Amino acid sequence: MVDARGVRKYFGSHEVLRGVDFAVADGGVACLIGPSGSGKSTLLRCINHLEPIDAGAIVVNGALIGHAVRGSHIVELPERQIARNRIGLGMVFQRFNLFAHLTAADNVMCAPMTVRGMSRADARRQALELLDRVGLAARADHYPAQLSGGQQQRVAIARALAMDPNLILFDEPTSALDPELVGEVLAVMRDLARSGMTMVIVTHEIAFAREIATSVSFMDDGLIVEQGSAADVLDNPCNPRTRAFLKAVL
Amino acid sequence: MSMSREHERPGSGPAPDTRHGSDLEAAKIAALPVRHPRRVRGPVGAAIVLLGVAVVVDVLVENKNVGWGEIGHYLFDGAILDGLVLTSWLTAVAMAVGIVLGIVLALMRLSSNPFLSWAARGYIWFFRGTPVLVQLVFWYNLAALFPRLSVGVPFGGPAFVSGSATAIITPYAAALLGLGLNEAAYMAEIVRGGLKSVDEGQVEAARALAMTFPQVTRKIVLPQAMRVIVPPTGNQVIGMLKLTSLVSVIALSDLLYSAQTIYGHNFETIPLLIVVSIWYLALTTVLSFGQMFIERRFSRGAPTRAKRRAPIPDEAVIA
Ligand SMILES: Nc1ncnc2c1ncn2[C@@H]1O[C@H](COP(=O)(O)OP(=O)(O)OP(=O)(O)O)[C@@H](O)[C@H]1O
Ligand SMILES: [Mg+2]
Question: Is the Cβ of A112 closer than 8 Å to some Cβ of chain B?
Answer without folding.
Answer: no
